[in-house]
TrEMBL record:
The protein's name: L-threonine dehydratase catabolic TdcB
Record-level GO BP terms: isoleucine biosynthetic process; L-serine catabolic process; L-threonine catabolic process to propionate
EC numbers on record: 4.3.1.17, 4.3.1.19
Biological classification of the source: Bacteria, Pseudomonadati, Pseudomonadota, Alphaproteobacteria, Hyphomicrobiales
Native organism: Bradyrhizobium icense
Pathway info: Amino-acid degradation; L-threonine degradation via propanoate pathway; propanoate from L-threonine: step 1/4
């Protein structure tokens, strides 16, 4: 794959893909001590960059291949890109998705008239079934990342970013199977050889990290970034990553959650866990990028609303703005009112209240009072705990 391939992909897809903005975030730049430029691929029609590569690949099909249709395996975003553009081009599409794929991604794929089959515990399991289906139905397999036409389509993002901000020093890119970072790295290094390419993986799924560093870190569990939870990176992509990617950073689930919450609260933009991975990496390693111009790709925005609510409330808890308190109080009239009055005087807002009389080790004349309160910050919470203690009430957090 060369810059010419990526230029050709740009010419092929430009009429059908949104030229998303690449804008500076003043607030995130101040927080991270570097200039943060955000490429908002979560604003594509399918809320993901994946439709770039999918469209480029679909355009390469012969008339006979178009008539027979295509099969793809995906944890959600590649599925939507293939389904949407296959429908536009009149190509039948069947999508294999692993068990556990977020419902929002499944429903959005079905909305584009694709046949959706849920099969396999992992993306790799779904991929094996997809290849079998291609053989039995005579359809063409559209790989989500290990395909040069797919990579070339994804690489058009780098062309747009460097056209908008030519003096970017670093591009921070999420890595699943490696299609996005491979295309971006080829395009960016061809145009600006001194630009640094930093990949990001969820700590729970460090597949590319293991492959290029000859490590054997475990891969397991449910990650917020299911879009990049790939156990086996591509054969082509890992060679490009070895050659062109300068570093790979692993981020924790807490860091991913914080990044999702910050992008919602600061940038007023919704991203999924994989889409927030770049910001998570910058927040995790602030010193290494200080003073530089950093480009982040918000690769997708397909996240369940229930999960957004959970991420936001968990972040409030981490910031000390939402706290569960447990107090032992006498089981007699007026005790709850007294606690409520003290909290109100201290400026706390009571969100939830519950008593536990039966399932506790307290004496029969005592009760366990559980409260969820809202405070301004950790300092405010500490002040409230001190006032409760001064009143003879010992509160336990958590």
């Amino acid at each position: 794959m060369t810059l010419a391939d990526i230029r050709a992909a740009e010419a092929t897809i430009s009429d059908s893909i949104l030229l998303t903005g690449c804008n500076k975030s003043r607030t995130l730049s101040e927080i991270c001590s570097c200039d943060i430029w955000i490429k908002s691929e979560n604003l594509q029609f399918t809320s993901t960059f994946k439709e770039r590569g999918a469209l480029n690949r679909l355009h390469a099909l012969s008339p006979e291949e178009r008539q027979r249709g295509v099969v793809a395996m995906s944890a959600g975003n590649h599925a939507q890109g293939v389904a949407y553009h296959a429908k536009r081009l009149g190509i039948p599409a069947t999508i294999l998705m692993p068990i556990g794929t977020p419902m929002v991604k499944i429903e959005n794929t079905r909305r584009h008239s694709a046949e959706v089959i849920i099969s396999g515990q992992t993306l790799e399991d779904a991929g094996r079934f997809a290849r079998e289906l291609c053989k039995t139905r005579g359809m063409t397999f559209i790989h989500p990342y290990d395909d040069r036409l797919i990579m070339a389509g994804q690489g058009t993002i780098a062309l747009e970013m460097l056209a908008a901000v030519p003096d970017l020093d670093v591009l921070v890119v999420p890595i699943g199977g490696g299609g996005l970072i491979s295309g971006v790295a080829v395009a960016a290094k061809s145009l600006k050889p001194d630009v640094k390419i930093v990949g990001v993986q969820a700590q729970l799924y460090p597949s590319m990290y293991n492959a290029v560093r000859n490590e054997h870190l475990p891969m397991r569990g449910d990650t917020l970034a299911e879009g990049i939870a790939v156990k086996a990176p591509g054969e082509i992509t890992r060679q490009i990553v070895r050659e062109l990617v300068d570093d790979i950073v692993l981020v924790t689930e807490d860091q991913l959650e914080r990044a999702v919450a910050m992008l919602i609260s600061i940038e007023k933009t919704v991203v999924e866990g994989a889409g927030a991975a770049g910001l998570a990496a910058v927040l995790a390693t602030p010193d290494r990028l200080a003073g530089q111009k950093v480009g982040l790709i918000l690769s997708g925005g397909n996240i369940d609303t229930r999960l957004i609510a959970s991420v936001l409330t968990r972040e409030l808890a981490r910031e000390g703005r939402l706290t569960q308190l447990t107090l032992d109080i006498a089981d007699r009239a007026g005790q709850l009112a007294a606690v409520s009055a003290l909290l109100a005087e201290a400026g706390a807002n009571i969100i939830e209240v519950s008593h536990q009389r039966t399932f506790s080790a307290l004496p029969a004349k005592a009760t366990l009072l559980e409260l969820v309160i809202e405070t301004r910050d950790r300092a405010h919470l500490a002040d409230i705990l001190a006032k409760l203690a001064a009143a003879g009430l010992v509160a336990r957090c958590g």
